[in-house]
Amino acid sequence: MPPEGAAVPVMPRFARGAVPAAWRAALLRVALAWIAIIIGFLGDWTTMARQWWDISTYNHVVLVPLILGWLVWQRRAELARLSPRAWWPGLPLVAGAAFVWLLGAVSGLDLARQAGVVAMLGACVPLLLGPRVSAGLLFPLCYLVFLVPAGEELVKPLQIVTADITIALTRLSGIPAKIDGVFIDTPAGLFEVAEACSGVKFLIAMVAFGALTANVCFLAWRRRAAMMAACIVVPVLANGVRAWGTIYAAQIFGVEVAAGFDHIVYGWFFFALVLGLVIAGAWRFFDRPLDAPMIDAEALARSRLLGRLEARSLPAGAALLGLAMVLAGARGWAAGTDALDAPMPAQVALPPVPGWTRVDYRPAIWWEPRAQGADHRLLGRYRDGQGRTVDVFFALYAGQGEGREAGGFGQGALMPESAWAWQSAGPAVGPGRSERLLGDGRVERVAVTWYRTGDLLSGSNVRLKLAVVRDRLLLRARPTAMLILSAEDGPSGSAAGAISAFRAASGPLGPWIDGVARIR
Q1: What sign results for the dihedral spanned by CA atoms 82, 85, 87, 91?
Q2: Cβ-based neighbour number of residue 55 at 10 Å
Q3: pLDDT higher than threshold 50 for residue 27
């Protein structure tokens, strides 16, 4: 027989439009909790909504709230047969989500902040409705992840994959071509697999669509896995074919005609075509009957595991009080770290380097890294006796946070919306992050980035974030420095050789950066 408190009513009352008494109070508590999370973290929700609306990569997310409502509505009749109750293990889940938000707040990582607030919404369900109802809402709760505007980290890898597919198809079609990073040189001209052509927005949208279809249209897990695999592989391959088609058309009709056609095709029309192909291929394998319920309330009610979990209940008022304390604690801790700024020197200057002389900064194409929110910025050029030149960019931050992130998106060596484009990863230079840039399709530049905070010297944005998080959670104020050494390939030698020679002359890089920052 079902565990105590898990009896299944004969008639699902939600189906008749009446809300059971036990559900009315529970739903009101969930609504109050969600309102508190939205209002208490309104800045994060506003930022997310702006990204959904303004950035084409995330335009599909505006449909996700409607999809979530539809998924819950599908389950309403079966859910009405379960009894909601507050559950104390939900509090650690809420606390974990709040901690993720706190990590984002203290490090300036918007992705963590946004993931945290979305996770807090989801964690309220087991806290206020219990494990049985949460099990019934498991897929909608997991689908909340698609509210988070994530995926920009995939742009560069997808650029490389698309370029590899494109060059293979170009050569296979008999067109002589050379590839250098994400640039493909053909008889008709030089083509770039730019960030906008990486296919990331279609991949993200297809994964969201694939997850929904796998749940709604399939029962067998193998078929669900196959659907998800198709929604990852097909858009990547299709994007490579699209890029190849543009290059092939350019050889026949010219670059301008091919580019115009590509701008027409490349968009939601392209996405609709790929989506239609995937649906057409999967249609005959749909195995969920049209009248099959999305969840089995009887099985959930009989589950002994859920019964044992449900025994850890607590009063609803205590659950709301605990939730309020967790939210207030996260906001308070974040507010305390906001005031953590390391003392800054009045001014900083690039030091002399043995064997190298400061010269006027006159690059062939203007290059100036971005360091938004930095308290000090320096940009200069050094030349040695062999005629090799190295450009040095230095930025010093009193702290890291929103609007002043040394490793944030759009910060560093590659200036967005400039004459410079990312070409490929550069030659290895110690622990720095090396990148090859191409200016106006003709000037090649290598830029190597290091971050310095405390004893850390690394080109890894992840390691920088972890170090900043550690310091701020411990309420410890430390400055952060960003150093970029860069050189252009030219008659005087390779860029990588010039940078290596400069590093050898300047001595250990950590103490050199500390000397510029005047912190040791």
Answers
A1: positive
A2: 13
A3: yes
Q: What does the pLDDT average to over 58-77?
A: 94
Distance CA 88, CA 322 (A): 9
Q: Tokens standing for 353?
A: 């380097």
Write the CB contacts of 5 (distance below 8 Å, at least 6 apart in sequence). Answer: 83, 85, 310
Looking at the structure, tell me whether residues 34 and 141 fall in a common domain. yes
Q: Is residue 348 part of a domain?
A: no
Q: For the chain, give the mean pLDDT.
A: 89
Regarding whether 507 and 423 lie in a shared domain, the answer is: yes
pLDDT digits (tens, 9 = 90+) for 351-384: 999 999 999 999 989 999 999 999 999 999 999 9
Domain tally, the chain: 3
Rounded CA separation 516/399 (Å): 17
Q: Which long-range contacts (CB under 8 A, 24 or more apart) does 45-51 make?
A: 45/117, 47/110, 47/114, 48/114, 48/147, 48/148, 48/149, 51/149
212/311 same-domain check: no
Q: Name 279's Cβ contacts closer than 8 Å, sequence gap at least 6.
A: 213
Tell me if 292 is assigned to some domain: no
512 and 367: one domain?
Answer: yes
pLDDT in tens, 9-24: 444 455 445 677 779 9
Quick check: is 369 in a domain?
Answer: yes
User: 133 lies in a domain?
Assistant: yes
